[in-house]
Amino acid sequence: MRSGMVWRAGVAVLGMAALAGPASAQGGDPLERVNRYTHGLNAALRAHVLTPAARAYVGQVPAEVRQGIGQALSNLGEPVTAIAGLAGGEFAIAGNALQRFGINTVLGYGGVRDVAAERGLAPRPFGLADAACGWGVPSGPYLVLPVLGPSTLRDAAASIATGLALSQALGAEALLGWQAGSSFHGYAEVHRDLDAADAQALDPYAMQRSAHLQRRARACPGDGALQVAAGLVEAEEE
Question: What percentage of the chain reaches a pLDDT higher than 90?
């Protein structure tokens, strides 16, 4: 019962993304007021909680140990990549993820060492949001999520659907621990660059929006509305 409600919720939000496609095609930011408010809250959280914790983590944990932690956390996500690859028809990506998970789990001490990459199987990130792009679901408007930061309506819906499905399979506590650890580790490794970029930007919100949309547009070249929103192509005149 609960699982059915979870998937219906995910499908409903994906439907909202499809309906919101024309707004993105116009290259606008219809949720800007809410986004800027959430961006401000996230900036305060980063300044007062995440950045001090990241500095302590980077300062106290040797780089080699942090690398192993990051690789082990990433290895846990390879089965999710495989499932998303199958859902998106990207069978090579799915196969690569399964091979990486098997090799690194057995030979890499649970993923602490990336033996698969040493054997020519480099990581190929792919999620449900990428599969949704392949299905032709428009990105919808730019959206800033609390704590998690930049996204789009489609990608947020995919993340919610993935998280809720995994919580059914793994348990909410295990999922939260893995995702929180992975997100914090990733932030800790790049927090200096993020802080420097924000300090130099005239409008950090606009800078983050542009960078995120361009990154997602390159990952999803078939989404014409996203290409326009990211400024990679010009909107066609009607």
Answer: 80
